[in-house]
Structure formats: C-alpha cells, structure tokens
Amino acid sequence: MERDLRIVLASPAENAWSETFIAAHIERLKKVDLLLSGGVPPRNASHGGPLGASTGIGKWVDRVMARPFGGVPELLRHRLARRLGKERPDVVLAEYGTMAAEIVDACRSAGVPLVAHFHGFDAHRTDYIARYDGYRDLFAHASALVVVSRAMEQQLISIGAPREKVIYNCYGIDVDRFVPGDAEAAPPHFLAVGRFADKKAPHLTLRAFRTVLDQRPEARLTMVGKGKRWDECNTLVTELGMARSVDLCGIRTPDEIVALMQKSRAFVQHSVVTQDNDHEGTPLAVLEAMASAVPVIATRHAGIADVVEHGVRGLLGAEQDTDVMAANMVRVIDDPVAAKRMGTAGRAYVEVHHRVEVQVEALQRILRSAARSAPR
C-alpha cells in the first residue's frame, strides 16, 4: 500500500475553508500536512509559525527585513522556499493560478513539484494574465494545470500552456447533503445563489424576472448572497416595482440553502463575460441545484454549458438576452412536469459525474502523478 502524500495546500483567502471547493480539498485529500493562506504570496501557515506578520510590530519588522529582498512579497517567497525545504512535502497544490504564479519560484528553489488549480478569473482576466507575463514561468515549471471547465482548458492552451499539462477536473458535490426536491410540486419560486458580482450579472436576472412578473404575477424570486452589486440590485428591485416578489435575503447558511433549493421550481443565473474578460469556472451553485433535482435556467457561459444540457437538465440562453431567460422561466412555471423531468435528469447526471469523493480522488491522482514524475 502506498503511503499518503504529504501535501502543502496554498489558498489566498484568510479563511481557507470559506470556499466550498477548497474546503473539500483540505478535508478530503490524503493528506494536507501544511495549509498556507492569507494572501498571494501567503503569510499564514497552519503550523511552524507564520511566514509574515499582517499587524502590529511584526509588520514593521518585516518591512525592514524585506529591504534586501526588494519588498515584502519577495521576503515571503524567500521564507516559503526555506519552509518547503525544511518540510520536504511531496507536492504543493496552489488554489488559483495567481497563487501558483506567486509561489512557483519558491517551489522550484525548494525542489518541490507544484500543481496549479485554476478556478475562473485567474485563467481569463486580462489584467492578471498581463501581470504574470501570460503565466509563462508557471506553465514551464508546474507539473500540472487543473481546470474546471472546457472553456478554461482551451483558454490556457491558447495563451501558451502545454496541452499535456492541462487537466480537466470539474468540481464535485456532496450528493448526500443536497438531496432531491420535487420541482413539480414546488411553487413557481426561483432561486439564485452567489456573489453579487459583475460576472454573475444579478441585475440581468432581475430584469428578466420583471418580464416574468408581467406575464405570471404569482412568480417569486429569492437571491442569496452579497457583493458589490447588492445595493444596486436592491435599488433596482424597488425601481421595477418588485419588492413584494423578490427577496434579496443576503448570506444564508449551507443548510438554509439546501432547504431553499428543495422549495424552488428552478435555479437561475445569468453569468456573463465582463469588460475585463472575467469568466466563471463551473459555478458550484449550479451543480448544487442539479444535485437537488432543480432545473437550471442560465446562460451558455463557461462551464455551465458543460454540465447543463439545454432541454435535458435545464434551459440555456445567450448572455445578455434577458428575454430568452424570462421565456425559459415562464416555461417551467407553465410546465411543472417538464421542470421535474429536467431536475431529475440533473440529479442523475451529478450522481454519476460530479460526486465530491470522485472529484477529490481524481485530484489525488493528479497530485500523486506530479509527485512521482517531478525531479527532486
């Protein structure tokens, strides 16, 4: 029997468990020996002391100590290389291409193979691609580049990633947690879950829903989440006269979201490409809705089209086309039997293709292959 890998996982968030897909990697991979977090490059470490201070006198001491290195980021990367050299892990998993690009030199210096896991903006946004010189150094030295959508796969290849290093491995869902509801029996209520961010275009979902209300006034929409466009959307709800029909309920717990999924006729999301070329990966909430046997009404954007087959597991339209989204919402109001059929098909698809344990096991194999093949 092979021993468990000794994995270092690097995530930019202060709370590495705050993103569900990263939390699944931390909890289910065998085994994460060291967790790095708190920015790019990372400052915090789960043991052995922090790589850098973010407050107090330690922050000022770091600034002084960083001068010979050219700045605090360079000091952090130097300390990371020393820590990796001391720990001697089998592999480093960097969540987001931006994190991977920040630490690739430290991994190379320590002789530790690096796997970069791209999730969305990091593969597409023009400003980040420019900042990291097209990820040229990362593409040359990473052992593997993991992507979560076919569009992202083609994007990395188009900007110079070696085809043999790019590996598609989409997210997985805990299908025992997101148990099926009954879309046919649910009232004509729609649910959106996600950050109020430009690429999720919540204002376009609201404009589509205004058209729905004009035709089916009994419809209701709940939008879970917060973000920079929340205030704008709250104002829009009032301006469009939808205060009695739309609930911008803010952040909800995972258990509350499970309950909302089970009471919904359909899940809605109007994802778009933004002016700075930001894209989704494959939205986790879309997969959670499918696991809940809820049909998905969305745009043909990034990884959504990989998992939602139009007319089979949901209904898709073009980005910016709120009329088509509205028509698709009216369709599932008028045909609850079709809503149930598509929801059931989505659940069956996720059970086969997107179980979290299967996804994490595939990632485990990628990491083990990287550990075996990289020169040490």
Topology:
Layout: E1 7-10, H1 20-28, E2 32-37, E3 44-45, H2 56-66, H3 72-87, E4 91-95, H4 97-110, E5 114-117, H5 121-124, H6 126-131, H7 136-141, E6 144-147, H8 150-158, E7 166-168, E8 189-193, H9 202-215, E9 220-224, H10 230-239, E10 246-250, H11 254-262, E11 266-269, H12 284-291, E12 296-299, H13 304-307, E13 314-317, H14 322-334, H15 336-353, H16 356-373
Parallel strand pairs: 1-2, 1-4, 4-5, 5-6, 6-7, 8-9, 8-11, 9-10, 11-12, 12-13
Antiparallel strand pairs: 2-3
Helix pairs in contact: 2-3, 3-4, 9-14, 12-15, 14-15
Describe the structure.
This protein has 376 residues and is of the alpha/beta class. It folds into two domains: 7-172 and 355-373, Rossmann fold, CATH 3.40.50.2000; 189-353, Glycogen Phosphorylase B (Rossmann fold). Helices cover 45% and strands 15% of the residues. The strands form two sheets. It has a seven-stranded mixed sheet with strand order 3-2-1-4-5-6-7, sandwiched between helices. Strands 10-9-8-11-12-13 form a six-stranded parallel sheet, with helices on both faces. The relative contact order is 0.12. The model has no long low-confidence stretch (mean pLDDT 95).
